[in-house]
Write a structure and sequence with these properties.
- This protein is an alpha/beta fold and 567 residues long.
- The protein has four domains: 132 residues, de novo design (two linked rop proteins), CATH 1.20.1440; 190 residues, NAD(P)-binding Rossmann-like Domain (Rossmann fold); 67 residues, no CATH class; 144 residues, 3-Layer(aba) Sandwich (Rossmann fold), CATH 3.40.50.720.
- Helix content is 50%, strand content 11%.
- The protein is built from 21 helices and 15 strands.
- The strands form three sheets. Strands 3-2-1-4-7-8-9-10 form an eight-stranded mixed sheet, with helices on both faces. Strands 12-11-13-14-15 form a five-stranded parallel sheet.
- Helix 13 links the parallel strand 7 and strand 8.
- Helix 12 packs across helix 13 and helix 15 packs parallel to helix 18.
- The longest helix is centred in the middle third of the chain and has 32 residues.
């Protein structure tokens, strides 16, 4: 049997000391300390046996104990995997320990050969490493080493931030079918106006609308918008289109992750069959699929993609681990591993459905309190002093998430023969608030003895929420439409929205600046540019007896002379 030289033994000793130190550092972590059994079992199986192995010298026992100490025994290996699964240690930390262990084994190759023939623990370690560890990290390692590329399909409010976050770490292909948007992004311009030019700096990304370029990727993330049609039913056409596109580019061994909001079951029932049909590949056998719902909040500079916990799911255990590890490259707080794709899809839907229902309750309370003659925000402020009172507020509910997602869930419920009463009731209330605000304003104009058909109203804000340019599903248009149905002349201003986009989407344009002598002003969206305006300003552009409507109540207790109303 071969032996090792003193120099080789010293080198192995140094490597093993590094491994021992690495294990010690990991087991000192707070999360390890919460699980006394894991901590001590790893210490016994790794640290103690490394020391004992070196005490035995260059012989069979030396390698046996060495292999035992770096994970060959099922007990230790399972604990390490358990620690990884429970996020006690990161994939990177696991990989570093594994690389050290593998290096030691490679440097004692003659002994490993001997042990393999003898059917002792060295072979067992090799087998476990090959079967359990490598498949889970193959795609991860290729991406980390820039031997493979990740592709983001759909570069809007969701896709572009994800693409740039990954591009600061690995190679990325940013794919979008809109050529004009591609040209803008190639010049470091975000068409959605959410990101700045500096956010593009230091990014290894190629923006394209070419399928041939897309074929270079091995990991695809689909982040196209999912809307509803005029009957408030899911519009899956963008999702079908993206699935066809990926089907043309995907190869054996590739991964696809959907981020677009869908109802539970949509990914597996609607999207995967499209990829199979177009590509000719077989799901799970030839390619893997996962789902990781987007949590992008337009205008929010605090809860960005890298700073919020990410839900991930996969079609099997291996894909779940791979997808989780890849998202951990950019997501600092880590990931939550959902047990199935359907669970991850449902989690996204109820995140926004919960908010929708709670806001609907506040809107209904606002209607009731208005009839009683008390201010809703005064009531909420008082009720909020109780420790477990949930703080939601009345208002317009639009946008691409809260105002849309619940309809995906009610659609699925109906398909299963169940009518979702609470969710649908909440949707009805929130979808009616624009019309309610306009009607209440009209009543007050009439009560001021003004001819409604000759009245002029200024609407401040047209986007779906404050401080963004996003006009998708903006409920301000409902206020405008209702005013016009009474013959009211309406002017609209907004410092963030595009007049051209509003004209195309809703049929009205923006004024550069407000006029004078309005019979009512509706502060529909609380853009930062409006927050400094005081009562004197509003008096200067209102007619005598004019009404100030403050939808979100930001001027509560600040208006002393004008006729004032809020939800």
């Amino acid at each position: 049997m071969a032996t090792i030289t003193k120099f080789e033994e010293l080198e192995i000793w140094q490597l093993a000391r590094q491994l021992s130190k690495k294990v010690f550092t990991l087991t000192e972590k707070e999360k390890f300390n919460k699980d006394f059994g894991i901590r001590n079992q790893i210490r016994r199986s790794v640290m103690d046996n490394i020391s004992e192995g070196f005490g035995r010298g260059g012989n069979k026992e030396f390698i046996t104990f060495l292999c035992y100490s770096i994970g060959s025994c099922s007990e230790t290996q399972s604990q390490f995997y358990r620690a990884l699964d429970y996020d006690y240690i990161s994939q990177i930390e696991f990989d570093e320990s594994y690389i050290l262990a593998k290096t030691i084994i490679n440097k004692t190759g003659s002994f490993v050969t001997y042990l393999n023939k003898s059917n002792v623990k060295g072979e067992k370690f090799k087998h476990r490493t090959e079967t359990n560890h490598k498949p889970q990290t193959k795609m991860y390692n290729k991406l980390k080493n820039k031997e493979a590329k990740i592709a983001i399909i759909g570069l809007g409010y969701v896709g572009l931030p994800i693409a740039l976050a990954f591009a600061k770490k690995i190679k990325v292909i940013g794919f979008d079918i809109n050529e004009e948007r591609i040209k803008m992004m190639q010049k470091n311009i975000d068409p959605s106006k959410e990101l700045e030019a500096k956010d593009f700096e230091g990014c290894d990304i190629e923006f394209t609308n070419s399928i041939d370029v897309l074929k270079q990727a091995n990991f695809f993330i689909i982040a196209v918008p999912t809307d509803i049609d005029e009957h408030k039913r899911p519009d899956l056409n963008p999702l079908y289109g993206a699935s066809v596109t990926v089907g043309k580019a995907i190869k054996k061994g590739d991964y696809v992750v959907y981020e677009s909001t869908v109802y539970p079951g949509c990914t597996e029932e609607e999207c995967i069959p499209v990829i199979e049909d177009v590509s000719g590949l077989k799901f799970k056998t030839d390619f893997k699929v996962g789902y990781s719902p987007e949590r992008i909040n337009p205008g929010d500079k605090e809860h960005t993609i890298t700073k919020i916990l990410k839900i991930v799911s996969g079609c099997d255990d291996e894909s779940l681990e791979t997808i989780a590890n890849i998202y951990k490259i950019i997501v600092e707080p880590g990931v939550h591993k959902a047990p199935s794709i359907k669970v991850a899809e449902a989690a996204k839907i109820i995140e926004n459905t919960q908010r929708d229902v709670n806001i609907a309750l506040m809107n209904e309370l606002s209607i009731i309190f208005s009839r009683i003659g008390i201010n809703t925000y005064d009531v909420l402020e008082a009720a909020g002093t109780k420790w477990n009172f949930l703080k939601f507020f009345p208002g317009l509910v639009g946008g691409h998430c809260i105002g849309v997602d619940p309809y995906y869930l009610t659609y699925k419920a109906e398909a299963l023969g169940y009518h979702a009463r609470v969710i649908n009731s909440g949707r009805y209330i929130n979808d009616s608030m624009g019309f309610y605000i306009a009607k209440q304003t009209v009543k007050k104009i009439i009560a001021a003895h003004k001819n409604i058909s000759e009245s002029r109203v200024l609407i401040m804000g047209a986007t779906f929420k404050e401080n963004v340019s996003d006009i998708r599903n903006s409920k301000v248009c409902d206020i405008i439409r209702e005013f016009k149905s009474f013959g009211v002349s309406v002017d609209v201003i907004d410092p963030h929205a595009s007049s051209e986009d509003l004209k195309h989407e809703y049929g009205f344009e923006l004024m550069e600046k407000p006029g004078k002598k309005y019979d009512a002003i509706v502060i529909a969206v609380n853009h930062r540019e409006y927050l400094h305006l005081d009562e004197a300003y509003y008096k200067s552009i209102l007619s005598d007896g004019g009404i100030l409507v403050d939808v979100k109540g930001v001027l509560r207790n600040k208006i002393k002379e004008l006729s004032y109303w809020s939800l």
